[in-house]
Specification:
single chain; alpha/beta; 6-stranded mixed sheet; 15 helices; 11 strands; globular
Amino acid sequence: MQSAGFAGPVLNSVSQNRKRQAGPFTPGSLTTQGRVCLPRPAAARDFRDWAPAPAGPRKRAPGKEESEREMAGNLLKTSSLTVRKKLLHQMGVSLYNTSHGFHEEELKKKLQQFPGGSVDLQKEDSGIGILTLNNPSKMNAFSGVMMLQLLERVIELENWTEGKGLIVRGAGNTFSSGSDLNAVKALATPEDGLVLCMFMQNTLTRLMRLPLISVALIQGRALGGGAEVTTACDFRLMTAESEIRFVHKDMGIIPSWGGATRLSKIIGSRQALKVLSGALKLDSKKALDIGMAEEILQFTDETECLREAREWLTQFTRGPPEVIRALKTCVSSGKELCFEEALQIEKDLVGRVWGGPANKEAIARKGKFNK
């Protein structure tokens, strides 16, 4: 047995690192991986509570205090706008850098030492991509090279301007069993685990934020890190005999590829806690009942499953790429950003499609409500 149903060791010092780097708390500017709570103008009145105290008492001219509050609010708003743009307007932005102890090139050299399998991408004329985890002899476990290739394929998809949808699947009638044990054993220190955690969180966050409507096609088993990959997709389709299981607790760790955070958003925190702490086996019926899966497919054959998944996805990807991609980005911003900032993203996206070719063609047809 060469595969393990988990994503690798995790160091508990993540929160400590965050505390050291975060500095003093700024009202209204709390940032987390999954959500950016950006400041509102009202937060400016608390600016002096966390700004450096003046050397001594000073008198303010009439109206100056209000002016300082306004300046403080504008400062917070401007810095937050940069965060927002990095999140969704600029694909390819990394969650971590060297200030977090993340040295990506060093990790890549280590991962190259563990070959095996591949991550394959097929881009169809319909605008649907097929991303295949291909290591069937090890239940599509991620070797080090496959982790690197997954990032390469995600970057390729970021640059695919005609893309509208994505199906993520495993070869050989199974999804993925997580990390290959060979790589896990060689990256056994807490430091190695933390860096690998940051690398895979980066990759899967970029996958999640692609302006493509994505679906995980789950045949056979999605275990550990494989289960985490399914949460980076917008939807999940399962065959009748398939299962999803987060086995991390049984391996003495927790999800380290962002799976716990994403799972909480998909099925809610209460259900996520049950699934993770119980290492529950989610068969297709249970997954459907709790909102983890969208539908149970009729077929179990690999070719027929893919055809069925393609047909299911096509109902959501009909239309011009620029419109489908804008819709996906708009929903992503609503999921990840605070309300006012999500509205600004929506406004920016409207400017890209309003009066565009698709809009003009639809108006010329006068078919607003007719299909």
